[in-house]
Specification:
This protein is an all-alpha fold and about 170 residues long. The N and C termini lie far apart (about 45 Å).
Length: about 170
């Protein structure tokens, strides 16, 4: 019986997730949380603990928590997603790039600059290997890495990364 209901439950979880994302975008955070909670609960009930679809849910829930100002909780969900992707696809899997980017950004906020740098460099390497070289996220990462080095007091490296960001054509129309 559980297998027969699985496709409709997965579809329902995806719909809840999409509604939650749209509600977040429109600023309806309380309603968004209800839908995102429903999505995660249904995915955890229906999918195996290592299913990549569950990782997508964790990534989206982490983004929501970060927007809501809960970086520590967001990190927990990003880490869950990261572990699922590692297990299924290894450390060079492209979909790890947004997780690394998001974790690096949180570590900047938390002032753990070494972790921030590590995660941003991992994200940058994956984006450089797997996307158009003018991807705007590459420009964002170069800027963030510059910010990290500036906060660490290494102004020469900060200027280097800022200049690298200027060299590219990183815009949203690429």
């Amino acid at each position: 019986e559980k297998l027969r209901n699985r496709p409709s439950e997965i579809m329902l979880a995806a719909l809840f997730q999409n509604i939650g994302i749209v509600l977040t975008t429109t600023g309806n955070f309380d309603s968004a949380r209800v839908y995102l909670d429903r999505s995660i609960t249904l995915k955890e009930k229906t999918l195996s603990k290592t299913d990549p679809q569950l990782a997508i849910g964790y990534l989206n829930y982490g983004r929501f928590l970060n927007v809501m100002g809960y970086p520590d909780q967001a990190l927990q969900y990003y880490t869950k997603a990261e572990e699922i992707y590692y297990l299924n696809f290894g450390t060079d899997y492209f979909n790890l790039a947004p997780i690394y980017y998001n974790k690096g950004s949180i570590f900047i906020i938390l002032r753990d600059l070494n972790k921030a740098l590590d995660y941003h460099e991992r994200a940058l390497n994956l984006y450089l290997k797997n996307t158009n070289q003018n991807n705007p996220i590459i420009g964002d990462l170069l800027m963030n890495i510059g910010v990290i080095y500036e906060k660490k007091g290494d102004l020469n490296k900060a200027i280097y990364y800022y200049n690298e960001g200027l060299k590219g054509n990183y815009n949203s129309e690429s």
